[in-house]
């Protein structure tokens, strides 16, 4: 099935390339929220979104109002062995290019929008730019392969260095073909320019993670009901971590922090998520049986968002070894639930600075267990509700998709 040009309206045709598996723009995440905002301004959205082989779906097209999603069947890249993941990742580039040529062959695109990860969209973006004289915009959400080097998953020398050099070459090519690059924070901009001298600074701009804000705070009645549902104490200050539990989050440090806080009577911790390091937290709880920690292996997004609203403080953890400035998108879920944020990170990211300077939370280095304990005690004595409201107002001012749209579409 091919999409024909005669179905188009007089509007900009925007192509979005992603590895995020979604089937409707009505879903809620930083990318679908942005695409809906772009569509709201009269533009037509075309998406190439993968469906891994294990899902047993053929390549197919989903049509919605003024948007088309091509669900492209690819190899398995999530929760599979390293060999299959590697082969599937390498094949993504030609698969995306071939799919654009086949299914969107008569669509003339004005803009191709793409994000990292991955860095392997180079040929697909080049193809659309050359064919349609389209502009290209990179949403820089991840600086790879350096992030993998930082946490020991890749090396710049030896056999692993060959892999690093291959991906570093791809990374440079991606920057080279991008007409503009949107970075998540000022630290991201500084890092990008200082480590890639060929990039013209005039094409690099601030375009942070953004959402279509929804007030996810809850009233006292709902708070009580939700805490009862998830077996959360009603009389404790509840600190919640939600998201990936992998090497980038520095899970051993998180466990050290939980261990150090086991005797803080009025603090209760909820860890929600999954990942390669989930078993470490599970083993810690099984062996030491802390009374103030609850571990939940994933929740549906709506349930998770509701549960977060019944908590008091949101937690962010990043491995202390990072030299690249990460800026976790989970910050936004805490802010729209009106939770202040306690961030434990490396010193290269500026997410902690944003939180502290914005007046909606606390920060310490993610190798400072005693510092974390002290901040938890601060949470118990400060007005978390007031700080959370400040965070929500900061979200409305800085991290909305309306702001992102105005940045990206600006001529």
Short summary:
The protein has 411 residues and is an alpha/beta fold. It is built from 15 helices and 14 strands.
Structure description:
This protein is of the alpha/beta class and 411 residues long. The protein folds into 2 domains: 5-207, Glycogen Phosphorylase B (Rossmann fold, 3-Layer(aba) Sandwich), CATH 3.40.50.2000; 220-397, Rossmann fold. Helix content is 42%, strand content 20%. The protein contains 15 helices and 14 strands. The protein has an 8-stranded mixed beta sheet, sandwiched between helices. Strands 11-10-9-12-13-14 form a 6-stranded parallel beta sheet, with helices on both faces. α1 (30-40) packs across α15 (401-409) and α11 crosses α14 (384-398). The chain is globular. The model is unreliable at 1-9 (pLDDT under 50).
Strand order of the largest sheet: 3-4-2-1-5-6-7-8
Radius of gyration: 22 Å
Q: What is the CATH class name of the largest domain? A: Alpha Beta
* CATH structural fold name of the largest domain: Rossmann fold
Q: Structural class, judged by helices and strands?
A: alpha/beta
Number of domains: 2
Mean pLDDT across all residues, rounded?
91
**CATH level-4 homologous superfamily of the largest domain:** Glycogen Phosphorylase B
What amount of the residues lies in strands? 15-25%
The helix fraction, in percent, is 40-55%
Q: What gap, in angstroms, lies between the N and C termini? A: 34 Å
Topology as a string of helices (H) and strands (E): EHEEEHEHEHHEHEHEHEHEHEHEHEHHH
Secondary-structure topology with pairs:
Blueprint: E1 13-17, H1 30-40, E2 44-52, E3 60-64, E4 67-74, H2 82-103, E5 111-116, H3 122-132, E6 135-140, H4 146-150, H5 158-177, E7 180-183, H6 186-195, E8 204-206, H7 220-229, E9 237-244, H8 251-260, E10 267-274, H9 278-288, E11 293-296, H10 301-309, E12 313-317, H11 330-336, E13 341-345, H12 351-358, E14 361-365, H13 369-381, H14 384-398, H15 401-409
Parallel strand pairs: 1-2, 1-5, 2-4, 5-6, 6-7, 7-8, 9-10, 9-12, 10-11, 12-13, 13-14
Antiparallel strand pairs: 3-4
């Amino acid at each position: 099935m091919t999409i024909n040009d005669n179905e188009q309206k007089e509007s900009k045709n925007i192509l979005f390339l992603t590895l995020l598996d979604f089937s409707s723009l009505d879903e809620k995440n930083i990318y679908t929220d942005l695409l809906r905002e772009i569509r709201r301004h009269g533009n037509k959205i075309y998406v190439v979104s993968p469906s891994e082989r294990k899902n047993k779906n053929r390549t197919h097209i989903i049509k919605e109002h003024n948007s088309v999603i091509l669900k492209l069947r690819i190899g398995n890249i999530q929760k599979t062995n390293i060999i299959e993941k590697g082969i599937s990742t390498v094949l993504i580039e030609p698969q995306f290019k071939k799919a654009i040529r086949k299914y969107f062959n008569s669509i003339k695109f004005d803009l191709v929008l793409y994000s990292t990860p991955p860095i392997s969209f180079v040929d697909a973006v080049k193809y659309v730019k050359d064919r349609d004289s389209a502009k290209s915009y990179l949403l820089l959400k991840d600086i790879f392969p350096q992030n993998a080097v930082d946490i020991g998953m890749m090396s710049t020398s030896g056999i692993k260095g060959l892999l690093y050099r291959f991906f570093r070459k791809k990374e440079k090519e991606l920057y080279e073909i991008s007409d503009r690059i949107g970075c998540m924070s000022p630290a991201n901009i500084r890092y990008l320019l200082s480590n890639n001298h060929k990039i013209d600074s005039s094409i690099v701009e601030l375009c942070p993670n953004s959402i279509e804000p929804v007030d996810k705070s809850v009233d006292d009645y709902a708070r009580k009901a939700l805490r009862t549902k998830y077996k959360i104490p009603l009389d404790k200050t509840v600190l919640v971590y939600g998201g990936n539990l992998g090497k980038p989050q520095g899970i051993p440090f998180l466990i050290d922090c939980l261990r150090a806080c086991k005797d803080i009577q009025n603090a209760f911790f909820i860890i929600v998520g999954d990942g390669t390091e989930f078993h470490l937290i599970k083993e810690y709880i099984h062996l030491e049986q802390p009374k103030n920690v609850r571990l939940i292996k994933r929740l549906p997004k709506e349930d998770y968002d509701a549960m977060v609203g019944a908590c008091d403080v949101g937690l962010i953890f990043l491995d202390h070894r990072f030299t690249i400035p990460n800026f976790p998108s989970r910050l936004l879920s805490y802010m729209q639930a009106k939770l202040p944020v306690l961030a434990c990170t490396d010193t290269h990211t500026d997410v902690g600075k944003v939180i502290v300077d914005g007046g909606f939370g606390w920060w310490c280095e993610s190798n400072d267990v005693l510092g974390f304990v002290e901040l938890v005690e601060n949470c118990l004595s400060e007005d978390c509700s007031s700080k959370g409201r400040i965070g929500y107002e900061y979200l409305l001012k800085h991290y909305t998709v309306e702001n992102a749209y105005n940045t990206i579409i600006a001529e």
